[in-house]
Specification:
Elements (H helix, E strand, L loop, with lengths): L2 H12 L9 E2 L2 E5 L6 H7 L7 E2 L1 H13 L3 E9 L2 E8 L2 E8 L6 H10 L10 H17 L6 E9 L3 E9 L5 E8 L6 H5 L11 H4 L6 H16 L7 E9 L5 E9 L5 E8 L6 H6 L11 H16 L7 E9 L4 E9 L5 E8 L6 H5 L12 H13 L3 E7 L9 E10 L3 E10 L3 E10 L8 E8 L3 E10 L8 E12 L8 E17 L2 E16 L5 H10 L2 E14 L10 E11 L7 E13 L5 E13 L21 E2 L18 E11 L10 E13 L11 E12 L2 E10 L8 E2 L1 E8 L1
Length: 758
């Protein structure tokens, strides 16, 4: 029977007493049968009050209104000497919800999700809500690949019109993709196409990526990946004909079949640009990413439209329209494109609105904007503004919108919304490395002091070799044009007795001021002035050369240090870099005011070059030079060192370069390090950006005065490394083989570093 008809008959039966009502004036209203519901609640839903005239129509309306509340499963109305009597029978309330057998999900999480379906303890029981919650629970298990989940519910009536609901779950095993069949491929091998897909059959690392668990969303994404691959390689007529997904009766194995037609491979016969644009046509034509004779690529066509739109956007044309009109010759398998450009109307920014910054001051955000109110819209400035606000690291979310102004075709607003996050941190940390051993650290940091954007931090770092205690304060906008100013106070203790370095100890206490001056969005210079006091100590095993230095210059020295630096960083990401460059130059000079006279120069260049979509080539080069002046030597504790992670892996940390007759490392006045490294995803975990595998070749040397033959000269190594940005911190392993080891060298093939904050 139709559900609507059934509901109508039930309502007709329940309201049968209402149809016999003769119109009367309501003297009073009495409610019978309520246990949990307040009488006032019933009165508030009734469409009739004392003093109203009651008839058959109002009686039916009253019953419908009370049914619609969902509180009652039976409603009747009666009349007794002018008194309207409303008789109700309440729906039971849910006394308890019990979940048995759930292992994949926390029970509290499942109960919380049931609330969205209307099922929760103390609520009115609704069979429809129970069915909805059951289906949602099954959906969550299916999303995890457990298609064989068995779920039963039991509803038990209790005293005082209550019920208890019990969910019994048998989760079963995860259904695995046993086979993926591609039907219709002729130009490419099936294995090559399967490598493009996220879904796969079980492999060595599928437990980590869950790639062998079927998901409708993943399959849709894989189909689009196949389509893009073919369309980007000339197959203009590529088409997915059908997709079949089948599961075995035991719900354990899934089979996927994708049928498609490749079609012919097309080349581009001609590309032209038309339309009246404010940008010179020859400049627009330079943005076209395809030319006659090229293999057709949908990616190139899309990129061309995007570049033209962005170029017009830089001139204020926010609503430009670029359409690539194709002309297909199926006989010759050629296609011509005409990019029709309509710039639309030029638009300027009326107002910049900021929302969500409850703590951070407006000016802290506005000073990062490159788009200005009253200027023409510039898409590059909008992007750069969002990027700079995001880099502040004060917000969990940064969203930007550019809605048009109603009634003004040439105006738009910029709406920036942020979600504040905690910028203060009190932390205790621990880490371990081969060289330092166990390192304990603690820090108190506030990166957005009182919402001003100023940064203050204290840090304690203890290790067997190095100890650091510091206090720093930075104002990133000391001036309105972005010049930063910072102050530092620090204490550094070094004890090299457990390393390959010549045995000595030093205690340094210092403080200084520094400034940073931006000269471009990704380029800046810095300079500073600091005062240091160093106290040196030697042991019985210290080389005579160090003893001579202390005898000549003393064990306590003071410095006035001047620093100058330059940096440029154009990487696409500081965490998972795929392209860009990093350049750093730094000079440290002991000014001729106090005891020491020396200078140190350093330069580093890194190039990240994308070999393909998965592999990145990293080229690194570093050079350093130091010396004393005014007849004074370079202090030995300011020498350069190399070897180990960060320079030449495979050799013990800071072990390369000149050595004395006791085979202790002396360091040197010149340092050179270089290397090439191929960064790639870990096999089987290609979609995980937190994990990377690499192969590298490195070389380095430290030059200076040495006693042991064979200690000078370049050292080479080759090896492989594994990097994981784990939940507990960065974890790095490397295994390297020295290629030209000398008898005096100290080798450390396996090296690792682990650091975390907890």
């Amino acid at each position: 029977m139709n559900k609507k008809k059934l509901a109508g008959l039930i309502l007709l039966f329940c309201t049968s007493h209402a149809w016999a009502i003769v119109p009367f004036i309501v003297k009073d209203i009495r409610v019978e049968g309520i246990q949990r519901t307040e009488a006032g609640t019933v009165f508030s839903y009734l469409p009739v009050k004392v003093g109203d005239t009651m008839d058959q129509h109002q009686a039916a309306s009253a019953i419908r209104a009370l049914y619609a509340t969902g509180f009652f499963k039976d409603v009747r109305v009666k009349v007794d000497r002018g008194v309207l009597i409303v008789q109700v029978r309440e729906r039971p309330s849910i006394a308890s919800i019990v979940i048995n057998g759930a292992k994949d999900f926390p029970k509290d999480q499942l109960k919380e999700n049931m609330k969205y379906a209307g099922l929760a303890e103390a609520r009115i029981f609704d069979k429809g809500a129970l069915d909805k919650a059951t289906q949602e629970l099954k959906r969550q298990y299916v999303a995890r690949g457990k298609y064989g989940v068995d779920l039963t519910t039991t509803v038990t009536e209790l005293e005082r019109n209550r019920v208890s609901i019990v969910f019994n779950i048998v989760e079963g095993e995860v259904s695995k993709i046993r086979q993926i069949n591609l039907v219709g491929n002729h130009a490419y091998e099936e294995d090559e196409l399967l490598d493009l897909m996220k879904l796969s059959t079980p492999g060595l690392f599928s437990w980590f990526s869950s790639s062998d668990q079927y998901s409708k969303q993943k399959l849709s994404a894989d189909i689009e990946t196949l389509r893009s691959f073919y369309m980007d390689n000339g197959y203009l007529e590529f088409n997915i004909d059908s997709t079949q997904v089948s599961i075995t009766p035991n719900k354990e194995d899934i089979y996927i079949t994708i049928n498609f037609t490749e079609g012919a491979k097309y080349t581009i016969a001609k590309v032209s640009v038309s339309g009246d644009t404010p940008v010179p046509k020859d400049e627009i034509e330079k943005l076209v990413q395809a030319k006659a004779g090229d293999i057709f690529s949908r990616k190139a066509m899309t990129e061309t439209s995007k570049l033209i739109g962005e170029r017009l956007g830089r001139e204020g044309y926010a609503f430009s329209n670029v359409n690539a009109i194709p002309e297909i010759d199926k006989e010759k398998h050629e296609v011509s494109f005409n990019f029709v450009v309509d710039p639309g109307q030029r638009v300027y920014i009326r107002r910049i609105n900021i929302a969500g910054n409850d703590k951070t001051r407006d000016e802290v955000i506005r000073r990062e904007f490159r788009q200005v109110e009253g200027e023409w819209f510039d898409v590059e400035k909008i992007k750069k503004s969002k990027q700079r606000v995001d880099r502040l690291d004060f917000f969990a979310e940064v969203n930007i919108e550019t809605p048009p102004v109603q009634g003004a075709a040439d105006q738009m607003d910029v709406n920036l919304s942020v979600k504040e996050k905690s910028t203060g941190n009190i932390s205790i940390g621990a880490g371990y490395s081969n060289n330092e051993g166990l390192v304990l650290s603690g820090a108190v940091t506030q990166a957005n002091l009182f919402g001003t954007g100023n940064h203050i931090s204290t840090q304690i770092n203890t290790g067997k070799v190095n100890q650091v205690y510091s206090l720093s304060y930075t104002n990133p906008y000391f001036t309105d044009d972005g010049v930063s100013r910072g102050f530092d106070i620090y204490k550094r203790n070094t004890d090299s007795q457990s390393t390959a370095v010549s045995q000595y100890s030093s205690r340094t206490l210092g403080g200084g001021v520094r400034f940073g001056v931006p000269i471009a969005d990704d380029e800046s210079i810095s300079y500073g002035l600091a005062v240091e006091r160093s106290e040196l100590g030697l042991s019985a095993a210290s080389p005579s050369r160090l003893t001579q230095y202390i005898n000549e210059f003393g064990s306590v020295n003071s410095n006035l240090l001047g620093t100058v630096g330059w940096g440029k960083d154009s990487r696409d990401s500081a965490i998972y870099t795929t392209e860009g460059t990093v350049q750093r130059a730094f000079a440290e000079i002991a000014l001729p005011v106090l005891d020491m006279r020396y200078y140190k120069l350093n330069y580093q260049y890194q190039l990240f070059y994308p070999v393909n979509s998965k592999v990145t080539l990293l080229l690194n080069g570093e050079a350093g030079f130091a010396d004393g002046y005014s007849d004074k030597k370079l202090p030995f504790f300011k020498n350069f060192y190399a070897g180990g992670p960060g320079s030449v892996r495979g050799y013990e940390s800071s072990s390369l370069g000149p050595r004395d007759t006791a085979n202790a490392v002396l360091g040197g006045t010149r340092r050179v390090v270089g290397g090439a490294e191929l960064l790639m995803p870990f096999p089987g975990m290609e979609k995980e950006k937190s994990v990377r595998l690499s192969g590298f070749v490195e070389a380095g040397a430290v030059y200076g005065v040495g006693d042991l033959p064979g200690s000078a000269g370049l050292r080479y190594s080759v090896g492989t490394a594994f990097t994981w940005l784990s939940p507990v911190g960065p974890l790095k392993f490397s295994y390297a083989l020295p290629l030209n080891r000398q008898p005096v060298d100290k080798i450390e093939k396996f090296q690792f570093t682990l650091g975390t904050m907890f």
